[in-house]
Write a structure and sequence with these properties.
Blueprint: H1 5-10, H2 12-21, H3 30-65, H4 70-76, H5 81-115, E1 131-136, H6 148-152, H7 154-160, E2 164-165, H8 166-172, E3 179-180, H9 183-201, E4 205-206, E5 212-214, H10 215-220, E6 235-237, E7 256-258, H11 263-268, E8 273-276, E9 282-291, E10 310-320, H12 325-342, E11 347-351, E12 363-370, E13 381-389, H13 393-398, E14 400-403, E15 411-412, E16 415-423, H14 424-435, E17 436-437, E18 442-444, E19 458-459
Parallel strand pairs: 4-9, 8-14
Antiparallel strand pairs: 1-11, 2-3, 5-7, 6-7, 9-10, 10-16, 11-12, 12-13, 13-16, 14-15, 17-18, 18-19
């Protein structure tokens, strides 16, 4: 990584406050520790400089001694050559110890700096409460009935119409997994195709990423194996070397993990790469399976598709110059708005607070959809998309650079921006609940999905695929 350690040293209080605002309590002492370690490193540098100067002086004297002979040598050498050689050996050992100490301090500084979160945008509310920026579509007005609660829950709807199977998945995999069946499978594929088509129309290029990445790549993107509370975040993959366990002395390959989002392999596409300014903004979109170990505590509010361990998501990602961050960010938001508006979901757009930002984000917008079954929790609102500006947090850690168009050829670190075009399970749940017709006892499919639904425009109990 090529972290801006100088900025941390010169602004330690700013980074301390950032950690406090974002509940990174373990890291809030890191900035001042970095300052102290750097001062110690500077003192070692001065000591090492004096030792190296003395070593050079001895080398000069010994070198001159070889050029004299006879009387000249005796007059030119008021010192013992053997003593100088012995001192030179000791200086070599002393310098080696100092350099080892310097390396250890530098490694510690780099490690602490790597664990610090990004700074926080002035647009971000400090604290835990988001700020509502606007709404999408009108709020639905459902008439209450004795069947209102069960029929408005996507779990009941999915079971009744043979669309979802949580019991079988729980038997073979555990809680947090599910089967999609029949028309639900068609809706999933239709949602993927629709989201991809909207993003491509807005200028994004399609990419199909891997779902397994090196753990250090995920960490460089801001995704740690465990969160600030110590809860497991990712799924690590057990590995062997050439059929032999890694405990037998064989060289261990880098650890791998299941990607929690395509943001990770997308960002990794340009690791150790230098782009040209003409290539930016570079915008890509792709569908992938995502794996989250932190699906949440089991309970009624997380029952069903809202919190799961594995799901399909269409993700947008962009590299851009710092001055173009707002434009690239707004482009992603436009895609999100168009998708959700045409799906007919009532949503609200939120400027997320500092406590909700991930390590890499300087600013984050969430869009929450209305779920009738969640009215007793957060007034029915539930997150369906998000978009984040990460500045150069990821590119510095991945060594992704951009070459200036000027004759100087100077390189700098571009900004990255990511955004969810569509996360299938939550949107599917919202469509089941909001598309349910109490009068007709069926589920209406949004018109924008019809072209991928093989003629299915409504899901009915007696309808088969």
């Amino acid at each position: 990584p090529s972290l801006n350690i100088k900025h941390i040293r010169e602004n330690p209080d700013l980074y301390v406050q950032t950690c406090i605002d974002r509940n990174y309590h373990r890291q809030q002492d890191y900035p001042q520790t970095i300052v102290h370690l750097f001062n110690e490193w500077k003192e070692l540098q001065l000591n090492a400089r004096a030792l190296r100067q003395r070593r050079n002086d001895i080398r000069t004297k010994l070198s001159h001694a070889k050029t004299f002979s006879g009387i000249e040598a005796a007059e030119a050498q008021p010192y013992n050559q053997a003593d100088l050689l012995q001192e030179a050996k000791q200086l070599k050992l002393d310098i080696g110890k100092v350099e080892s100490h310097e390396d250890a301090l530098d490694e510690r500084i780099q490690s602490l700096a790597t664990d610090l979160p990004n700074l926080t945008s002035e647009e971000t509310p400090i604290g835990t409460e988001p700020r509502v920026l606007g709404y999408i579509n009108e709020h639905p007005n459902f008439a209450a009935s004795s069947h209102h609660h069960p029929w408005r829950n996507h779990v009941h709807i999915g079971n009744e119409f043979d669309l979802l199977d949580f019991a079988s998945a729980g038997t073979i995999t555990g809680w947090g997994w599910y089967y999609l069946k029949n028309e639900a499978v068609l809706v999933e594929q239709a949602l993927i195709q629709y989201a991809m088509s909207v993003a491509i129309k807005h200028g994004f290029s399609a990419v199909s990423p891997p779902s397994i990445v090196y753990t250090h790549i995920a960490s460089a993107c801001g995704f740690q194996p465990r969160d600030q509370g110590g809860e497991q975040q990712t799924y690590a993959i057990a590995q062997k070397e050439d059929g032999q366990a890694t405990t037998n002395g064989a060289e261990r390959s880098p650890e791998r993990t299941l990607a929690g989002t395509a943001e990770i392999p997308f960002a990794g596409m340009k690791v150790n790469t230098t782009m040209t300014a003409h290539e930016l903004p570079l915008r890509i979109v792709g569908a992938s399976r995502c794996y989250r170990a932190e699906a949440g505590a089991r309970g009624a509010e997380t029952k069903g598709l809202y919190r799961v361990h594995e799901f399909t998501k269409v993700e947008m990602f962009a590299w851009t110059m710092k001055d173009d961050e707002p434009t690239a960010f707004d482009a992603m938001l436009a895609v999100q708005k168009e998708i959700l508006q045409n799906l007919g979901l009532h949503c609200r757009i939120l400027e997320m607070p500092s406590a909700d930002l991930g390590a890499s984000a300087i600013r984050k917008l969430d869009i929450e959809a209305f779920f009738p079954s969640r009215r007793e929790k957060n007034d029915g609102w539930g997150e369906v998309t998000s978009a984040s500006i990460c500045t150069d947090y990821q590119t510095r850690r991945l060594n992704t650079r951009v070459k200036s168009v000027s004759s100087s050829g100077k390189t700098e670190f571009p900004s990255t921006i990511n955004g969810t075009a569509l996360a299938v399970p939550r949107v599917l749940a919202a469509l089941l609940e909001n598309g349910w017709s109490e009068r007709e006892k069926c589920i209406d499919i949004p018109k924008v999905l019809h072209q991928w639904m093989h003629g299915v425009e409504q899901i009915k109990k007696n309808q088969t695929t």
